[in-house]
Amino acid sequence: MEFKTPLLLWFGVLTALFWSFDYWKIFLRSPLYFPVGTNANPWIKKSLRVILFFVGLVGWAYLSYSLMQPRLPQKFTPSNIEVNDIILCIDVSRSMLAEDIKPNRLEVAKNRIRDFVKLRPTDRIAVVIFSEKVFTLLPLTTDPALVDQVLSEISIGYLGSGTNIGDGLALSVARAVNSDTKNKVIILLTDGVANVGTMTPIQAAEEAKKYGIKVYTIGLGTDEDAKIPVGNGIFGTQYQLIPGGSIDYKTLKEMSDLTGGKFYPAKSNGALREILDDIQNLEKTEIKVNHKIVYDEKFYHYLMIGVAILFLVELIRKLFMRDVV
Predict the structure, then answer these.
(1) Residue 79 CA neighbour count, 13 Å, CB half
(2) Does some domain include residue 53?
(3) Looking at residue 8, what DSSP letter applies?
């Protein structure tokens, strides 16, 4: 048995308490009248009044129980939900601190990806980060709040130097292959060229293709030279200059083409937003889940019994006991 509004029980109890005060005239004494010529024994009259009171309490118990809206679940019916498995594979190499896209590439990527995730509440999301080393920051989850928190806390520096695109993609593929979801997608965002790792980006893309996983690649950065903060000096923040146009567009496009995905160059904050909006149109897959949707509502049975009992009590009070109320 389930209860839809259990707290309303106390409303019924409170109402029964006020009824009891009225029944016994605790705050106002009213005379009790019996029909003329009645020779009823006073003890019988008092006993009848006590019995009638407890019968009334039974009626209020039924009414109070009905206020909680008791119900029994009867059926489970299938409902279809559209879902994807999406693995976000994000470059956290030091060059992502470049300020050619304000405030820097990493912060722009984090903010735009967080907006993207908020629009996909039914999807399972995982986060893989890579620099010289690769790391699963978050396994597949359906908790949007957790994904948002993890994305907001991504930072630079603890995975070494270098850009290990191949192993980053390979780890993302490994995270996706054990899922039962048919539609699996990897969104890989980087600003550089693969220069370390045991697996090349193309080899990793071939693994993704083998398992039917689409890879969408995004090259983030402008074609102009960019500055990376490297510390503070006498004259303020010190910067290192990195050449523009250092993204390996050719390899990124080959990776996405190989897996049936798409390559996007993102040279501004607005461009990245438009790219992720385009990826929002990914094909979705339906999965079946069970929901309780049919209930046998029991409250009206208790309601009718309670009303009938109280009506009978009040009728006896007024017509037979001549109770002035």
Answers:
(1) 8
(2) yes
(3) G
Q: Answer yes or no: are the C-beta atoms of 254 and 168 closer than 8 Å.
A: no
In the chain, beta strands by DSSP E: 2-3, 70-83, 85-91, 124-130, 134-141, 184-190, 214-220, 226-233, 236-242, 263-266, 285-297
CA–chain centroid gap for 28, Å, is 56
Q: What percent of the chain has pLDDT over 90?
A: 48
Cis peptide before 103 (omega within 30 of 0): yes
**Owning domain of residue 65:** 2-74+293-319
Amino acid at 107: E
C-alpha distances out from residue 161 to 107, 134, 156, 214, Å? 19, 11, 10, 28
Measuring CA to CA, which residue among 139, 207, 125 is closest to residue 175? Answer: 139
CA distance 187 to 185: 7
pTM of the model: 0.64
Residues contacting residue 65 through CB under 8 Å, at least 6 positions apart: 9, 12, 299, 302, 306
Question: What are the DSSP E strand ranges found in 48-156?
Answer: 70-83, 85-91, 124-130, 134-141
pLDDT digits (tens, 9 = 90+) for 135-175: 999 999 989 999 999 999 999 988 998 999 999 999 999 99
Residue 312 belongs to a domain: yes
Cβ(201)–Cβ(171) below 8 Å: no
The residue to which tokens 């080393």 are assigned = 133
Question: What is the rounded CA–CA span in Å between residue 307 and residue 158?
Answer: 71
Residue in this structure with the two tokens 């339906």, named with its chain if needed? 286
Q: Is residue 150 part of a domain?
A: yes
Q: Does some domain include residue 288?
A: no
Bridge pairing between strands 214-220 and 263-266 = parallel
**Are 83 and 283 within 8 A, CB to CB?**
no
Amino acid at 286: E
Contacts of 10 (CB under 8 A, 6+ apart): none
